[in-house]
Amino acid sequence: MMMYQSTRGAAQVSPMQAVYEGMAPDGGLYVPTHLPQLPYGDWAQGTFVQVAQRILSAWLPGFDAAAVLQGVYEAFDTPQVVPLVQVGPAHVLELFHGPTAAFKDVALCVLPRLLKAAGQQLHPGTRLLVLIATSGDTGSAALHGFSGVEGIRALAFYPSKGISAVQRAQMVTMPGGNVAACGIQGNFDDAQSGVKRIFAAPISADVRLSSANSINIGRLVPQITYYYTAYAQLVRQGTIRAGERVDYAVPTGNFGDILAGWLAKHMGLPVGTLICATNANDALDVFLRTGVYDRRRPLARTLSPSMDILVSSNLERLLWYACDGDSAYVSDLMTQLAREGHYAVSASVRERIAQDFVSVSVSDAQGLMQIQSVYRQHGYAMDPHTAAAWAGREAAQGNRPCVVLSTASPFKFPQAMAQALGFAGIDDTVDAAERLGQALGQPVPVSLSGLGQRPVLHPDVIEAGDMDDYVRRMVDAW
Ligand SMILES: *Cc1c(COP(=O)(O)O)cnc(C)c1O
Fold first, then answer.
1. With b meaning 16 or more CB within 10 Å and e meaning fewer, what string describes 449-477?
2. Is 104 in the active site?
C-alpha cells in the first residue's frame, strides 16, 4: 500500500490520513513515498472523469475513486470540463467552467468528498468544521464545494473591504445550510491570523477543524488530470504525435497548479518546459532564476489578486523532490524562511529545478497590453491571470506547442477587463459582469449572472477580534 510522509520528517501515514490531516504535525506537507507512474497512453483519451479516476486511484488508494468522482463535474457548464481552445498560435486550456467560474473549482469540487470519505473511515461520528480565510476566489469555490456535504460545515472569513463586489456577492449568496461567509473589519492578513489563532486553540472535543487550503494533497491530485487531458486533446486534433513534448504556461500563486504539471511530467506525461508566470509579486520568479527565496518585500496589490502572494507553500514539495527527499534539508530551509525571511538552495537543487522550469514576472501594465492585443488580434477576452501566462509563453519563446492555462473567467474581473479594453462605465458593482458581457457581446457565465438579484444569506460582518467567539457560537448551535 502506498504511504505518505512529511516533507520535513519520515513518519508515514495512509493516503486517507494525509487528506484528513491536510498538513503534517511537524509543519511539513504530505508527499507520497514514491511517485506513481502513469505514462501517457490511449487511456488518457477518456472523459475527464475517467482520466481523473485513473489518477486518483494511483495517488489515493483506499478511496473509492469512482464514488468520489460520481457526478462531480456535472456542475460544470461544458461536458468537456476543461476545453482546449485555439487562440492564434496558442492553445488555451479553459479551467474556469466550474460552478464559481474559477479554476479552483476543479479541485475544490473533489476535496470535500475526499474529506467526508476519510472522516467516515477514520473518525466516524466526528464533525468537521472547515475554516477558510480568503481574499476572493478560494472562498466561493470552497463554499460551493462543501455545500450540502454531510457531517462537514464550512465557514469563509473575508476582508469586508478587500474583495470585489462580484466576489463578495458570490459568497454572501451561497446556498446550502452547512456553509457560511463572514466579513472581517480588517484586511486579508487579519482574517488569516484569526483563523490560525482558532486552529491553535481548538474549540470543542467532538468538532475537528480543517482547512481547504491548497497544501492539502487532496487539492493537488485532481489537478494533475487536466495536464493529461490537454495533452490528449492535442494528440486527437493532430497538433502533436503521442510522445512529443508540450510546454505549459501557468499563472502561479501558491505553486499548486504548476506543481500538478511537474508531477504529471514525472509520472510520465511528455511535458517539456513548465513556464511559471508571476505578477509583480515575484519572490517565486526570483527563486526560479537565482535559487534564492526572499519574502522580505512588501506585498503589492495587483490586477491578478489570486497571485498576490509572498510565500508559495507548495514549493516545499518541489524542494523535497529536488533534494531526493532529504527532509532535514527541507526542514532547515523552511526554518530559515520562517525565522529570517529568506533561504538559498544548493547548486544541485537549483540545477534540478532549472531542468523543468523557466519563469517570468509580468507587470499589470504588461498584462493589460496582452489582454488588449490578444482581444484585438483574435477576438478572445482573457482574464488578467491568464494574461500573465500568455506573456510568459511569449517571453519563453519555445518552439514546442504550448498550452496556456486559463485560470479565471474574464467576467470575474470586469474592472480590469474594462481598463484593458477601454470600456467605460464598468465599476466595482455586482452587475459589473453583466455590463462587461454587453460591452463584449458575449454571454455571462450562469454562475456570475444575476448576482445582484440573489438573496443575501450571510450578511454578517464582525471585528477580527471576535472571530473566535463567532466560531464558538456556530459550533454550539450545530
Ligand atoms: C488560485 C489562482 C491562481 C494561482 O494558483 P496556485 O495553484 O495558487 O499557483 C491563479 N489564477 C487564479 C484565477 C487563481 O484563482
1. eebeeeeeebeeebebeebeebbeebbee
2. yes
Query: What distance in Å separates the CA atoms of residue 231 and residue 141, rounded to the nearest whole number?
Result: 26
Q: Which of 104, 116, 161, 412 is catalytic?
A: 104
Q: What is the pLDDT of residue 193?
A: 86
The residue nearest atom 4 of ligand 1, judged by CA position, is 253
Per-residue pLDDT, 304: 94
- Determine whether the shortest distance from the Cβ of 254 to ligand 1 is under 6 A: yes
- Residue 90 near residue 404 (C-beta atoms within 8 A): yes
User: What's the pLDDT score for residue 211?
Assistant: 84
Q: What is the pLDDT of residue 129?
A: 94
Q: What does the pLDDT look like over 18-27, one tens digit per residue?
A: 999 998 999 9
- pLDDT the model gives residue 58: 98
CB 128 within 8 A of CB 151: yes
Q: Does the model's pTM come out above 0.85?
A: yes
**Distance (Å) from CA 258 to ligand 1 centroid:** 9
**Residues with Cβ within 8 Å of residue 403, at least 6 apart in sequence:** 84, 90, 91, 92, 93, 230, 231, 234, 246, 247, 248, 249
- How far is the centre of ligand 1, averaged over its atoms, from the C-alpha of 165 (Å)? 19
Taken in order 85, 90, 93, 94, is the CA torsion positive or negative? negative
Q: Between the CA of residue 88 and those of 91, 374, 376, what are the distances in Å? A: 8, 8, 11
Within the chain, which residues score under 70 in pLDDT? none
Residue 204: predicted pLDDT: 81
Identity of residue 23: M
Give distance in angstroms: CA of 299 to centre of ligand 1. Answer: 16
Ligand 1 centroid–CA 94 distance in Å is 13
Measuring from atom 14 of ligand 1, which residue has the nearest CA?
306
Report yes or no: 408 and 383 within 8 Å, Cβ to Cβ.
Answer: yes
Domains and CATH numbers, the chain: 82-102+220-411 (3.40.50.1100)
- CA–chain centroid gap for 211, Å, is 14
Among candidate residues 55, 52, 88, 91, the one with its CA nearest the CA of residue 73: 52
Query: Cα-flanking dihedrals φ and ψ of residue 115, to 5°?
Result: -65, -40
| From 306, 311, 315, mutation site for ligand 1 pocket: most ligand atoms within 8 A of C-beta | 306
Rounded distance, CA 382 to CA 90, Å? 13
- pLDDT tens string 201-248: 877 878 898 888 888 999 999 999 999 999 999 999 999 999 999 999
| C-alpha cell belonging to residue 296 | 522580505
